[in-house]
Amino acid sequence: MRFFHLFLLAAAAIPVTSAAQTQKVAPPKTVYWMSAATQSGFGLPGGGKPSTGDIMRMAMGGGGGGATKLLQLDLGSKLTPTGAPMASHAIPPGMAMGAALPLKSPEKQVYREDRVGEEPTEFERPKGKLLLFWGCGETARPGQPVVIDFAKVAEGQIPPGLFAGERVRIQHPPSASTWPAFGEWPNNDRKAPQSVPAGASLIGAHKVSGNYTPDIAFTLSQDWMQPVRLDQKKLPSGAVQLGWNVAPGATAHFAQMMGGGEKQGDGPTVVFWSSSETQTFVSGMTDFVAPAEAQRLVAKKQMMPPAQTSCAIPKEAIAAAQGAIVSLVSHGPEVNMIYPPRPTDPKTPWVQEWAMKARFASRTGGLL
Fold this sequence. Notes:
By secondary structure, the chain is mainly beta. 12% of the residues lie in helices and 34% in strands.
């Protein structure tokens, strides 16, 4: 009897694999991404593809209250279209852009053998330098700026730790190069609207349909984020104090400045500064960033927390930049849906038909 009791205790101590961990999951063959950005000021849109009209409105201060709404739609599928690929996105009336937006497939690129080998035979040795600054504060941190000589980089001499702070998990929406069937908006369909009205709203019922996608029906309660306004104040030290409002739903902020000028005979001097507390350069932190990733980057002090509303550009960076553009991005929420939902019975495989992602950001910028 004692032996049997010990056997039961030993059996109970054996780890049992969770049923949820053994459920078979088949990823979706069709994915749909909506990238909605609010752009105020004259900045550099990091998401969406602005039309010529969008760019003109941003240069002139924007539409509705000085802000422009940008939208990029990307549909990728592994399903074979019946005939020429066709798809469209039925939109809610509040978007004021008609009944639906066409998701047009780009034309296939034609390979031409006569273009092979057309490369320049003479190269000019690059000139100039890049000065890297980072961190909020009136005075640059010790060891700044990091100076990068373009001529040495061309010779393969990359400064150690140049991308030491680059640990951003960048999102990759569907594209024509990654999915067999692909459709997008905006596109070159002149019969359809190619820009978003100032008063448009995403709230309501949406439905994507076509001959290479299942019907993707969903309802959004999240709209474009409110505009971010960026104020600049020159401080007695020579630094520039940046200030901004917090758009509801913001998860993190990231600011950067790019500028420089030409020095006679020495080539251009490019100045780059970012609000990150660690060295960073041309990072993915200006693109759309998922809320969980934004939270991680805030904890690592690569991004500013959502409650922060100010940051100073060091006087040394200001003095080095003869002219510059400053920009700020406030990352926002994200909506994710998968159909059908995960079965509660772990023995039933989860065969996903489609997945939808809607991501949001609010950006601003202007001349320093």
